[in-house]
């Protein structure tokens, strides 16, 4: 089994990465492999609701969302990590998740395995040795 994780922070190796790694290392103890994909530091476009994905199975913006869709084909579960920005997830990960509308259209059953992981900085620092 393999779980694909998204680090929704603009910091590649920040608290969100640390939180996801902790989750991943726990999964490993149960024989579940994991991979962390970084969302990157550039803006992530929101969903245009153009419905092109209904025809092509891909988003018109050929970026991290399509990369995730491709990698995700071989994965059994997904974890989305985000720093808390004003008591919510970041704009980038919110746009990313909006655009997973493609999943809803192409693989509706897989959405059942989605888990939202919010990163609370104080708690993460507390866990560090
Ligand atoms: C624009 C912005 C808004 C934030 N809002 C909150 C918040 O509402 N609550 C909170 O606890 N931390 C907030 N933070 C702090 C981040 O959640 C915290 O630094 C987090 O650990 C960053 O994760 P990262 O290292 O993976 O980027 C905010 C940070 C930024 C830049």
CATH architecture: 3-Layer(aba) Sandwich
Task: Determine Rg (CA atoms, Å).
Answer: 15 Å
Q: Overall 3D geometry?
A: globular
Average pLDDT number: 85
Instruction: Count the beta strands.
Output: 4
Structural class: alpha/beta
Q: So how many helices? A: 6
Helix content: 25-40%
> Which runs of at least 5 residues are low in confidence (pLDDT < 50)?
122-129
| Fraction of residues in β-strands | 15-25%
Would you list the SSEs in sequence order as H and E?
EHEHHEHHEH
Neighbour order of strands in the largest sheet: 2-1-3-4
Sheet having the most strands:
4 strands, parallel
Ligand catalogue: flavin mononucleotide
- How many domains, as an integer? 1
Question: Could you give the distance between the termini?
Answer: 29 Å
């Amino acid at each position: 089994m393999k779980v694909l994780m998204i680090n929704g922070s603009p910091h590649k190796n920040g608290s969100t990465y640390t939180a996801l790694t902790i989750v991943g290392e726990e999964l490993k103890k149960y024989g579940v492999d994991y991979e962390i994909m970084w969302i990157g530091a550039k803006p992530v476009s929101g969903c245009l609701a153009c419905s092109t994905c209904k025809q092509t199975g891909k988003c018109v913006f050929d970026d991290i969302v399509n990369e995730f869709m491709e990698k995700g084909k071989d994965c059994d579960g997904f974890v989305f990590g985000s720093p808390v920005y004003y008591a919510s997830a970041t704009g980038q990960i919110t746009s990313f998740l909006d655009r997973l509308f493609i999943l809803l259209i192409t693989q509706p059953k897989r959405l059942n395995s989605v888990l939202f992981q919010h990163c609370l900085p104080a708690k993460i620092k507390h866990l560090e040795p």
